[in-house]
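Prompt: Have a read of the protein record below and flag anything odd:
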Amino acid sequence: MASGKKITILIPIMRPPNVTSVDVEAINKIIGKLEEEIPVRQIWIIFQNSKFKIQNLNNIEIIHFENFENGIEIIEKFQPDVILFDGELTIPSLTFALAGKSKQIPTVGNFFIPEIEKMESKWIKNRIQLMYGKTSFTDTEIGSELEGGIAIKFLFREYMFLLRTIKKINFSIFEWIKFFITYPRVQLFSRFSIAHHKINEPTLSLCSVSSWKDKLEKQGFNTKKIKVVGSPLYDDLFNKTKEINFKHTKLEKIKILFCTASMHEHGIWSKKIEDKLIKNTINKLNEYQDFQVSLKIHPITSSINEYKQLIKETKLDIKIYQKESFQELIKEYDVIITYGASSIVHECVVLGKPMVSLQLIKDQLTEISTYDENIINICKNLDNIFSDINNAQNKKINQKLKDQQIESIIGKIDGKCSERAANEILKIIK
């Protein structure tokens, strides 16, 4: 590759580049480091239920996947030097893993989200709940355009795009049989919250932690093509750990930010179960007059109107945040309360913010299976939440133990994960 030559990166993804989402943020950070070394042209292929007007940015072209017949057509039009996608076994990543291999274009899969094993029977139930949801959980309002639609209808359109791509690749009968045996089975019966399989193997696999590398090796991924680089998602936190010094808000009341985890939006729980947990927690906190509670919902997957109605049912005056930066908000609050395996948990641990994790429902995703009680405070009974909040504010944490758990769960925090990822990508571009 000639020095200074502009490279084209194709990015098949669920959401556009200006959205606050962990998959988007990781890719933006990696590309930011690539641009320090070489000019980059970005082509974002958005897999959304809604068709939207093209909103091109500087060096970024944004298109809807259904503007094309199949993935091969997209590759032939844009002639990318590399294809970059989330490594999870989804229709966007599988489509372009197969298409890239067919056209001999290097592909890069990212495995940055902490993995959690789950019971197979429950995973099937979760997947079915997602498929038959009123809307696709990936739906994003782009401008003022957001068309509603049952999730399974959108899934069918995605699936047909994948099949048209495979047909264009000209699979043999044996390859078709192998595909139909493998893909649906792994999607429905995977023991893991993030489905992964060799059928989706990219040219280069970028992992946040060594445990991801071990899982991919067990699936038959080429060991030499798996690189542990850490998680670009948390590069910004490295400097903030030196800058942020959390202090009590010094108000008459203790300010609590209750962060939801989009469990029903992701098909993990029913809406009824999650609503009940949220209302019970808020009502319990309201028994203590020294607390001031606000709610922070997911910036993308949650409906603010749903939560306004939920808060209305409590008959309490609760402020709701959605698009606001979590890292800015926590400066204004004394304690964070959340549940589930959210990135909020990792940010609080890294930044040293007092936090209480609710584990009121027997579910592996609320039990997190990550940080132990030496690092975070866990509430398993709402009757104990007041003491749990007090303990969180006064907790003394062993820094060495904390660093060890952070590195094993989300990767090394040194501010250089994006740089390592970018350097590995440059090595595979001809």
